[in-house]
Each structure stands twice: as C-alpha cells, then as structure tokens.
Amino acid sequence: MLEVILAYWAYVKKIAVFSIIVIFFYLVAKLASNRILKARFIGDINYLKSLARITKLSLVIIGILIGLASIGVSLSGLLAAAGFTGIVVGLAAQQTLGHLIAGLTLLFEGRARIGDVVKINDFWGTIESISLLSTQVRLFTGELLTVPNQTLMSSLLTNASNLKARRIDLDIGISYLSSIDKARDVIIGYLRRHPYVLAYPEPRVFIDSLGESSVNLRVMLWVPASKWFDVRGSIIGELKNELEKNGIEIPFPQRVVWLKQAEKS
C-alpha cells in the first residue's frame, strides 16, 4: 500500500513540476507580450500585435519542452519511439519552424507590414494580416491570397508603401499630321498643373517609336507612392481629352490604300 502511495505521490509531483514550469513560462510570455504592445515607439500597433503573438507562442512552447525534460521525458526518445510518425511530425515541425522564422524576419526587417501595398510575383494587393505562419493579402481584384511566410520570403516582393515616389510610364500615339512639339508642350503643361505630379524628378516626353499609324510618345512622370494607382487610373483619359481639346489627333489603326487604274487599250 505504501509503495502505491509513493508511486502515486511521485506521479503527482511530476505533474505539479510540469504544471508550475508551464504556468511560469505562460506568465512570462503574457508579461513579455504586454510589454511589447506598450512599446509603441517600435512600430505601428498591427506590427506589435504580430510580434507579441509570436513571442508569446514561442515562450509557451519553450516552457512545455523544458517542463517535459524536467520530469524525465526524453524528447529524442519520443521522436525515436514514434517511428514513421515521428519523422512526419519532425518534417512538419521543420516546415512550421521555417514559416515562423520567416514571419519573424519579415517583422524585424520591416519588409512588409499590415496595410502595405505590395506586389508578390505578379500579384498586387494590400496586406491584411501577418500571422505566425502565413500572410494574408487582399488582391486588388478582391480575392484574399494566403501566402506561407517562407514562400513569401522566397518570392519577388515589391513593397510600394516603402517608396516616397513612384514613376508612371505612359505610351501615347499621335497622328503623323499633328505637331510633335505642340503635343509635347500640351502634355508637359498639363502635368505641371496636375496636383499630384511631382516637379522633381521632372516629367519627360519623348518619341519612343514610329508606328504604322502614329508617332508613339513615351510620357514619364513621378507621383507620391500613395497616389500611384489613383493617378495612373485617371491620367490617361485626362491626357486624351487635353490633347484633343488642343487639336492633337490620336489616331486609330488605319491603312492607306492606293488604287491604280488599268490603262485603256
């Protein structure tokens, strides 16, 4: 009977030690999380929330591992005893850890934050959330794209929100009968009056190529990065109206056909 009581007491003691260690690390994790959220000077609140979640989860996991080791549980032994399942879990854990590290790298490097306008490979969108394992991007077409953090780190990532100014390139064709100098003056004059077109770098207009039906002009202008999409979407139509108002023709594709009459016999 005494042996049963002692064995039971040893079992209870292990549970108590494990629980105390886990609770201690949980409290430390909660304290660290709260301290991070109060440190507003580090960055915006969304960035701090993601960092706090990652820190809290990491400390809790460390506490569980230390708790298991303190009561004599061999982690390597568990994995070895699990056989094939252990290998699968190990691979999954390795992949999860990769996503977690990638998420931390994203946050600390400041490559992407919630609210940033980004281009991932060929997709443009706005970052809605950065979690422990993945990042969600709301595409401009409306779809919600979920990207694993490790995949995001290895992708071609362009963050437009980190830019102060972005360039807009436009191709405008005018007829061969229209004056190139006048068209250039009209375009430059309009761009200088536009409230969002920057004076420096100066907007430029030059002949890019000679097409079948038009002289193709390349227009280059700089705008604040936050206004790039708005200006890009509206300025093409506005320039068309401005050119037509000043007598500059924008031709449609056409061909000139010469008819040769047969000689009378």
Structure description:
This protein has helices spanning 2-38, 45-70, 75-82, 84-109, 149-154, 180-193, 228-245, and strands at 117-120, 123-130, 134-139, 144-148, 157-159, 165-174, 204-210, 215-224. The protein folds into 3 domains: 2-109, Helix Hairpins; 117-161, SH3 type barrels; 163-245, Alpha-Beta Plaits (2-Layer Sandwich). Helix 1 (2-38) runs antiparallel to helix 2 and helix 3 packs across helix 4 (84-109). Mean pLDDT is 79; it is low at 84-89. The protein has 265 residues and is α+β, with helices and mostly antiparallel strands. Strand 3 and strand 4 form a beta hairpin. The protein is built from 7 helices and 8 strands, in the order ααααββββαββαββα.
